[in-house]
Amino acid sequence: MSLQNPVFIPGPTNMPEALRRACDLPTIDHRSSVFPELLNAARQGVQTVLSSTVAEVFIFPSTGTGGWETAIANTLSPGDKVLAARNGMFSHKWIDMCQRFGLDVQVIGVEWGEGLPVATFEEVLREDVDHQIKAVLATHNETATGVRSDIAGVRTALDASGHPALLFVDGVSSIGSMPFEFDAWGVDVAVTGSQKGFMLPAGLGIAAFSAKALAAVETASLPRTFFDVRDMAKGYEAGGYPYTPSVGLLNGLNEACKMLLDEGMDNVFARHTRIAEGVRAAIGAWGMSLCARRPELYSDTVSAICTPEGFDAGRIVSHAENAYGVSFGAGLGDVAGKVFRIGHLGSLTDVMALSGIATAEMAMVDLGLDVQLGSGVAAAQSVYRQSAAPLAMAAE
Known about the structure:
- There is one protein chain.
- The chain has helices at 17-23, 35-49, 64-75, 89-100, 118-127, 151-160, 211-217, 229-237, 247-263, 265-285, 314-324, 350-366, 375-395, and strands spanning 56-61, 81-86, 104-109, 133-139, 141-142, 147-148, 166-170, 189-193, 204-209, 289-290, 302-306, 329-330, 339-343.
- It is an alpha/beta fold.
- The protein has two domains: 17-262, Type I PLP-dependent aspartate aminotransferase-like (Major domain) (Aspartate Aminotransferase, domain 2, 3-Layer(aba) Sandwich), CATH 3.40.640; 265-395, Aspartate Aminotransferase, domain 1 (Alpha-Beta Complex).
- α10 (265-285) runs antiparallel to α13 (375-395).
- It is globular.
């Protein structure tokens, strides 16, 4: 692939030059008086991006997977019951992690392309009169299928059933790109990473805890060492870490939060929606459909595109990389070979998105698919021109 071209995978995402420079620091003593200012600013920035005034933010040298482990290892005990739905590869992986920890996972099977089954969750929670279920796992944005689920609805299901279970939310491919309301949704642990909405290299796992989740930490007995938030909290109190932190990435995270907040989170969300709508218009012009079943499920950060039956969608991904030096996402798990994915999150503009749409078209035409060259580009251009018109008039 060409390093000059933007990537269209759902993470790691394109990095603004300012964030690359922010990560490129001389060695800093992480036990010096300089480090706490950087650390505290990054944690405060993440809390604000989460639309929270109460979340306790923990930042580990890790990835989103480490954030998953942080959530379960710090709040649960061996044999605890967990409720989860399997509706994609990443919900599947979180379930697998819980099972490896010896947790009793009640799994609700959901067709890939559908969202979380909120009504079923409520039925199960109402039936659990002894409150055996200790946590509900919810993947906000299923990266494998391009499906956004209703986290506010899951909170409503918990409240309507009067159930005290903790609410864990995987926001790895949504936080920083799509609306996420930690406080308003009553989230107990939110998980994300540095390499998606925060536009940084992979290397930071982020977990934000509510007061209720922090209380559970004191009685939980699953094994934890590296991801023990008690050790991390003690380190933060002293202005440091219990071990060596990723100083450059923390500085980058601080700058990423500033960049997002300077743009304004509502503007960040509107930009992602606009770019996604252009991509979806292109998909319609190609005569193809999304893996996500209904418009209310459509993700604003990644689109999983179904190719004609019998055609290996992975060929589009490999051909685009080999012929044009551009990366798209392959299908995963149950949809491997059936979809290819266009990531449209992080540092991305309308014009960048058009280059990805044009490349996908070229690859599909090269491979003999019944796609009219330029059709998707024109459809996306129509979306972007309409949304850009008010800005153009304001500048005149």
